[in-house]
Amino acid sequence: MNIKKASEITKVPASTIRYYEKEHIIPYVDRNDSGIRDFDEHLIRRINFAKTMRAAGMEIDALKKYIYLFDKVKDSESDQLQLLKQQKEIMEEKRDDIQAAIDHLNYKIDHFNDHMQATENELRDLEKVHKNKP
Asked: 39, 5 in Cβ contact below 8 A?
């Protein structure tokens, strides 16, 4: 199948698929006699794997390392597992940062009338004083 069909099946843009090939995230894609990429089920699975790992927050460099270990290094399961654990820790940190930001916004929303409006009014008053200075 061509790249358009592979893109439709995986819901990954053709430009991303080409990037994955260029970066060796997916193996080299054979071309047909016309020079058009010819995708098979194996490549579709690799694209879907990359898509899933990216959606899980794995950075491109980490994904490339994981793919390298999977494809090239014999007995690399422990290294692959370690990489997955590191990626999980990174995602948990990001989740915690996002949760802290959400908590902060919830505080601001919950205290808008008794805190935020008073603070904003003070800032407006300061702006008025500042504008009236020579």
From this structure: yes
